Amino acid sequence: MNKKQYLTAVIAVIAIDLALIITRIFVAYIDWTWILVIVAALYLYLKYKTSGPLQAFSTKFNMLVDYDLDVAEAKRLCQERVNEAPTKNIKAFYMVYLGMATYYNGEYEEAIRTFNQIELKKLNNVYHILILSFIAYAAYEMDDMETFNLSIERIKNLQGTVNRKYLGFVGSYLQVLEAMQNMEENPEHYKEVIESQFSRNDGYISTKLIYNYRMAQYYETIKDEVEMDKCLAKVIANGKEHHTVIQAKKMFKNNVNVEDYVFQEEPEEDVEVVEEQQLIDTNIENVEEIEEVKKVDDDEDLFK
Q1: Who is most buried in 6, 36, 119, 228, counting CB within 10 A?
Q2: Which tens digit of pLDDT belongs to each residue from 75-105?
């Protein structure tokens, strides 16, 4: 449902509501209960038409980014949805995904600008964590350590405002970001975190790309150039236009043949998906959480 359709539907619902109320005033035998039931049904239908497509959208987004690696199409789809969003709440939701798609396209500065344009008060606090995490990721790729460190501090400050059922989600992002922050001082801990978060075979190519790209950074830190290039070759050989490929090509030292590292088909593991934006997508069971207007101190201008 786009803006025009939404406005037409709202006007129609209001007109029907008024007609029912006026009819009840002049026709005494009409029960108020039936009027309330009809009004509630109309409201629920309108809400369904605006929020119903969100889950289907997030699923399509994940497939484009994580399996097809068509990050350009993912960004185009997000921009289209932002332009057609029927309400500000829904627009804020789509802008989160637009920011992520822009990040996955390797446009880090633009991604941060997109996140900073989001009206955070339109989103549940957990989305603020997601936004901040992606801002931190983008800043890290640009060597903007001031923004990177500030984003981590903001996540820590917001951690206590998030519903308890999302604390695992927050903890996963924070664990990775802090490992990245302290990689120079403790590269082995960084390696452990990356392996625990991304070494699984969940069927998504993006998970393998992220794992190998992050491990290449580990090998770069400990100055093992050959192992670094092996990881980078896997990213370059399989990543299409994914942002990790852009960064991998900058780091690659030509110690190995890229064509030797094309991924082979492997059976999928039965694991819980916890990768990047999928962490949040699994929590879109209740669109009411997206549409609630919540008061938060410093949130949402950032989206990961």
Answers
A1: 228
A2: 999 999 999 888 888 899 999 999 999 999 9
Domain count across the chain: 2
- The pairs formed by 183-192 with CB atoms below 8 angstroms and a separation of 24 or more are 183/217, 183/218, 183/221, 184/221, 187/218, 187/221, 187/222, 190/218, 190/221, 191/215, 191/218
CATH number at residue 107: 1.25.40
Q: Is the separation of the CB atoms in 179 and 193 below 8 Å? A: yes
Domain range for residue 224? Answer: 57-291
pLDDT in tens, 246-286: 999 999 999 999 999 999 876 555 444 344 444 444 444 33
Phi, psi of 59 (to 5 degrees): -65, -45
By the 8 A CB rule, do 147 and 139 touch?
yes
Please give the single-letter amino acid code of residue 39. V
